[in-house]
Design a protein that fits this description.
The protein is globular. The chain is 32% helix and 17% strand. By secondary structure, it is an alpha/beta fold. It has a 6-stranded parallel β-sheet, with helices on both faces. A 6-stranded parallel β-sheet has the order 8-9-7-10-11-12, with helices on both faces.
Amino acid sequence: MNVALLAHEQFPDRAKTAVGVLRYADYDVVAVLDRDNDGSRVADHVPDVQDAPVVASMSDVDEDVDALVIGIAPIGGGFEESWRPDVRNALERGCDVYSGLHYFLEDDEEFAALAAEHGAELWDVRKPPADLGVADGVADSVDATVVTTVGTDCSVGKMTATRELYETAREQGMDAAFVATGQTGILIEGEGIPVDRVVSDFAAGAVEQMVLEAGADHDYVFVEGQASIVHPAYSGVTASIVHGSMPDHLVLCHEVGRDSVHGYDQELPPVGEFVDRFEAFAEPVADADVVGGMLNTRSVDSDDEAREAIADFADAIDAPADDPVRFDPGSVIEVIR
């Protein structure tokens, strides 16, 4: 399937959905839409992912496109009106549009009418199923080993870490499943439940449902974490994922240089404190231990500096750690095995 990714003014650093699709999804990306970087290529900004031209608008994409993917997940999940011409252009060409926003495109009268007129599909990835219920507290009944990623903050790389752990496990012959809990993971995997959009009473139940289904068919279940228990806005989704998945192990994710909460004037606690925080938080429902750490070192120039930062992180959490993209998560997989 050929797709274009919308990432205006945010690519690559603030377009984690677009970058996640470029790195992991089974799509052929023919273009990235970003007015600020028009005329460049993906490879000029992000190494080791699919390459594609960066153009100013959907009207600049000459190739056949099956779907336009909104590759930005702004705080609050709103729709930016400056994107409307690109979505309109895509629908008029008969392209489907996939969106991970809290703003549902299918509820937009213009987009719904254009989709119907041109035979296109609007996929609001963040729209949860209607048949969810409260958790029964039985996720620990699966025979599989459940590993949940947690973070010091949002946007530190939990989806990426989970995906790398899952793919490395499969490469090593482990029978593993990936549980997608956010819009990027769902776009990559093609299924999942957007936990941050589920009614709070049912959020842990949604995670439990996915773990039970994955655990029935696989030996290892890697659950995509969200946000952080210290985040003033998003801690609720963290609680639902940790308590709903009832994990055997936790993997702590952090980004080099992150010392304040994303989007807020609030200092983060010392990294080492998060081990006790998360283990104590999980303890009422699961005897989960932090078995390793995943450090996002994208802001560090040299591999030597990155390895030094990883060593400091490993010392702080008293567990093996690595950057799963720059290097690999093998040391943490070894502990999980």
